[in-house]
UniProtKB/TrEMBL annotation:
The lineage of its organism: Eukaryota, Fungi, Dikarya, Ascomycota, Taphrinomycotina. Keywords: Cell wall, Glycosidase, Hydrolase, Secreted, Signal. One of its GO terms (molecular function) is glucan endo-1,3-beta-D-glucosidase activity. This is Putative family 17 glucosidase SCW11. It is found in: Secreted, Cell wall. Gene3D superfamilies: Glycosidases. GO terms for cellular component: cell surface; extracellular region; fungal-type cell wall.
């Protein structure tokens, strides 16, 4: 089993201590061999934590450091469809070996779509970003469905629909996705649609709610 390592980026400077921690960890016991890809920043542009120019510069800086320290795997960032479409310079810059895509159809608010359409919608996201990024390698770094919260368009949060959505995604996308998320994120605020805590696929108290 391999892992995706993510370095959070609330600002350019916030990445630096994490880079050193990654290098120290990676150089021990051949830990770099465990890493499938290194992602620098998660939804930096979507959340407006920083600019595309600063993100590009930071990825270049991190790349030079980790490559010099022996890391040879792919490097990228994770963001949303709109972030890539609105910032074409990110893909054009050449700093991304892999384009991480956070793909959550629930937020589209399309009244004609339901959980069963999630797989096709995620594939459409990938197609749009692939076209915008000159067919670079796209990896879905997040996709899932809430089990509680507000109805948004035709998307109705429930345990049953969570299972339907995830099965739809896997049937279309196969293993080229990272499912979001293992357990409920009770540390988060509920958010605009009251769903932010409720994407967990496994329920420790009620196993019958588990996706599998």
């Amino acid at each position: 089993m391999k892992i995706i390592v993510g370095l959070g980026m609330k600002s350019a400077a916030s990445v630096d201590p994490q880079v050193q921690a990654f290098i120290s960890w990676g150089q021990g016991n051949k830990n770099y061999d465990l890493v499938d890809m290194l992602m620098i920043g998660n939804e930096v542009l979507q959340a407006k934590h920083d600019t595309a120019a600063n993100l590009i510069a930071k990825i270049k800086s991190v790349r030079s450091q980790v490559v010099a320290a022996g890391y040879t795997g792919p490097i990228g960032t994770a963001d949303t469809v709109q972030s890539y479409l609105q910032n074409p310079g990110l893909c054009a810059s050449g700093v991304l070996d892999v384009v991480g895509l956070n793909a959550h159809p629930y937020f589209d608010a399309n009244p004609s779509k339901s959980a069963a359409d999630d797989g096709a919608i995620v594939q459409s996201y990938v197609n749009r970003v692939s076209a915008a990024c000159a067919n670079k390698n796209i990896f879905v770094t997040e996709t899932g469905f809430p089990n509680h919260g507000n109805t948004n368009g035709g998307m109705v949060p429930s345990y049953a629909n969570q299972k339907i959505a995830i099965e739809s995604v896997l049937s279309v996308m196969g293993p080229n996705v990272c499912l979001f998320t293992t357990f409920e994120d009770l540390w988060k605020q509920p958010g605009q649609y009251n769903v932010e805590q409720s994407w967990g696929m496994f329920d420790l108290t009620t196993p019958s709610n588990d996706v599998w």
